[in-house]
Amino acid sequence: MLLFAVTGLEKLQAVPLKIWINLIMGLLIVIAAIIFLRKAAEMNKVLLGVIIFVVVTSVGFNWVYARNEPKFMSPFIDRIADFFPSGGPDARKEKKGIPDS
């Protein structure tokens, strides 16, 4: 029976390389986020607020213009998209997956 026993190391060797790369990248992102948050806690709160405002509005306007928002944000973006410029019908076709005719 010991011949059929699979060790934990053998199971780990069977995991694809892509999974390991994704895990390492995720770990590095978490570490970078922790470092950033610690540095942000020491910042001037007004400057931090301005930086967050600029980033959030830039991402938001990009989502409205190009219609490339995450799926869970689509109901909210659909409501505010009429008030802001958009990429035109091409952006909506790409979003809905409508082929060009």
Strand-helix topology:
Elements: H1 8-13, H2 17-41, H3 45-66, H4 74-80, H5 89-96
Task: Explain this structure.
- The protein is an all-alpha fold and 101 residues long.
- The chain folds into two domains: 1-42; 44-101, no CATH class.
- The chain is 67% helix and 0% strand.
- The chain has helices at 8-13, 17-41, 45-66, 74-80, 89-96.
- The radius of gyration is 22 Å and the shape is flat.
> Helices and strands, in N-to-C order?
HHHHH
Helix content: 55-70%
Structure classification: mainly alpha
Unreliable segments of 5+ consecutive residues: none
Number of strands: 0
Shape: flat
Gyration radius from CA atoms, angstroms: 22 Å
Number of DSSP helical runs: 5
Rounded to the nearest angstrom, the distance between the terminal CA atoms is: 64 Å
Largest sheet: none
Number of domains: 2
Strand content: under 5%
Mean pLDDT over the residues:
82
Which descriptors would you attach to this protein?
101 residues; mainly alpha; 2 domains
Short description:
The chain is mainly alpha-helical. The chain has two domains: 1-42; 44-101, no CATH class. The protein has helices spanning 8-13, 17-41, 45-66, 74-80, 89-96.
